[in-house]
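ARCHIVE CARD
SHELF: 3
SLOT: left
DATA:
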Amino acid sequence: MLYRKISNIFKGHERTVKARKNIFTSFAIKGMSIIVGFLLIRVTLNYLNQTEYGIWITLTSFISWFTFFEIGLGNGLKNKLAESLAKNDNKMARIYVSTTYAILSMVIGLIAVIFFFANFFIDWTIILNTGKELGPTLTNLALIVFGFFFMRFVLKLIGTILRADQRPAIAGAFGPIGNLIKLIVIYILTLYTEGSLLYLGWVLSIVPTLVLIFATVYFYNSDYKHIAPSINHIEFKYAKDLLNLGFKFFLIQISALVMFQSSNIIIAQYYGPEEVTPYNLAYKLFSMINMVFAIIVAPFWAAFTEAWVKMDLNWVKKTVRNLFYIWMGLVFISLFLYLISDTFFDVWLGTEKMKSINITDRLKISLIIYFLLFTFGSVFNMFINGVGKLQVQMYSLLIGATIFIPITIFFIKILHWGIESVVIASIVSNFYSPFVAPFHYYKLINNRAHGIWNK
């Protein structure tokens, strides 16, 4: 009986079955990832003190800003490659892959050279609000962290290839594998060395880079040998196809980064780097709401692209409706996480450690509301992104990014709401996901999208 029920899950429309297999595999991978991720934070906090950990988190937040220079090429490639694969056009697929690697390599190579020279003139102690004695350490740490990040910038395209081929579970495994290796190495560091930001920087930068190198070599010599990047297939005349779509994703990413990735920097500036730690610990726990739902919706981006190309709109409607029902279950998961949060933090980090870390109920509730609204929008955004109708989303998020920092400062300076101000400002600024995205989806799926709604 149980076997029959499990077997039925993997029956039905080919596109749906493929998505379900990815979801189940991703849950298994993410389950390991969650455990390893929480252990990694605990080991890292034992290796560094609270202030050093806050410095590390804030410094690495700056990495997100450098994703600006991807200019949306990754997501542009995902859509164009998914379209080519749906049409069985391997020649165009290889051209898109090769051209993306070429453009991205040139862009990030130039940025890397500029950064390496500029870094010697950047005073990280001012940016991170730390003592001057840490200046040399932070300069060297920045070179290590950003140097390997620039390498991963291009290497991570292998994950885009897998997602375009509706295999997000495999792409999602790279991070957990890297985290497991990092956990082992950092634990060894705690046994034989004193807490060092430089040692931590080396480990957390080298390991994920090596994982991506191995994955790139493996897949382009096996599953994707027929679309592997090649100098002979670089055709910049097709860059326009990638960049037209990619530029919209680029502006969306910039807006999202301003709202979602500047929080650590704002907290460090107004409250000190030590307050970044409680914010990130709470964020880590309640981001499980988004993590769970992201696993479920991830396989559908490329699937929606394929369905749109083949005009299989009934499948799209049925899938979005089912995703909405699944989202409703997140409300109960959120309530459960809130009820166990204090006990969880004590078990996770230890009661003694938590005596010095204050995570307020206001911060917890703010994060729950934020993640529930964000994931609600994801039900519809997966389809909107998959079909590349991004103009409304782009303008909405640009407005949100413009008002985010002023609203945050207002909450901090005028209302004195504390570190949860950044979360509440994010809720206000990200009005597109819960309010505009459902309406946009309705217009597209019913062929009522005209003008800006259809661009």
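SLOT: right
DATA:
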Amino acid sequence: MLQTLFVIPNEIAGVPLFGFGVVAALWLAWCVVYALLRIRKEGLSTDVLSSLGVMGVLLFAIVFVVPRIMVRDEATGVTGIAIRGYGVMLLSGIVAGVGLTIQRAKRVGIKPDLILSLALWVFVAGMVGARAFYVIEYWESFQRDSLKETLIAIANMTQGGLVVFGSFIGAVGALIAFCFKHRLPILPLTDLVAPGMVLGLALGRVGCFFNGCCFGDACTAPWAVEFPAGSPPHIRQVETGKVFGFVLGQRPLAGDATKSAPTIVEVVADSPAAQAGLAAGEVVKLVEGRPVGDLAEARAAIYFAFRDGRLPLRLVTDRGARSLEPIAGTTTHSLPTHPAQIYAAIDAVLLTLLLLAFTPLSRRDGETFALLLTVHPISRFLLEEIRIDEAGMFGTQLSISQHISIAMLVVAALLWAYLERRPRGFAWPRQAADHGAAAAT
């Protein structure tokens, strides 16, 4: 885990970089140069105006948003913009994905400028979709005392908070809109960008590993990893009781199925919880002397007691009082955990290679993209069985990502059925020629 790589100071020799500073001035200068070059080349087209609009939004963010998300590096005392490992890998994924798409576009006679314009559309829509999905899913954690503070919390993405499926939905929507605007065939373009999208996902998942998000459950495999105290995996293990050797869940109250009580659902053998006599089925009544009425209250009470060093943890259940010490080492790091982020990165790399290998074997436009819609949701559904960062939704044990995976498979089946009714062949002649050459060899 490497959340912060370094901090860019807000000022150098008393000269401000952000806000109304050097960075805004340089970005504004680049916007002017870019506008002049594009207008000279193609006139004041709607595409140029849309690009300038996006660049204007970024300028607004540099001037007004960035100064409000400054952090102070406790080690150096420097206040500035934290360069996160998550953000660096996200940017690397974008560059790699766009680069691969440009190389594939050249083979079918599409100019790089068109792909760069598409990339801008997809990037903005993808980021908006990814953040919107995350905010909706975890809306309670973004609510503040005022609308201004809430909007600032939503805009602060320096520590993660993006959902891949939200990004995918936003990106596909932008791609379709781009095709309509430029009168491009949709299916061939989706085939073109599919491998680049998944390559970008692979690098983005490495960023998730740096950030500690999208984490897996505890495991004993030789490749298991330990995250530092205060990281998302460690916090989850604390609040669910795993660092003490038990798992906290819930069960309906007798006589009132609409309410549930925090309940011990599992106790690990030879753990501090087992040694204290805790057993599965006990209902938690008090945590550190504080009454807890539901699972959320119990988890919060356990976490704050652990964070504040009030150990051993004192629990009162319907079968008596218990004092629990944490498992050795868990005050400084998590229990060994599945590196689910790395699993996802490897999966995305393999899918990228599969799409590239399948392209010469496809028979008609849209099949490469259909393969992406088929394989990715299956692997994502299975990976969600390892991850524990998302709760079950809609009254089931399935996470929201698993529900979307099922929906995506349905869309994939419909797309395959549609493609089977289309004649074989390709919209771009050079692509068709490449397929012919591949078949001949």
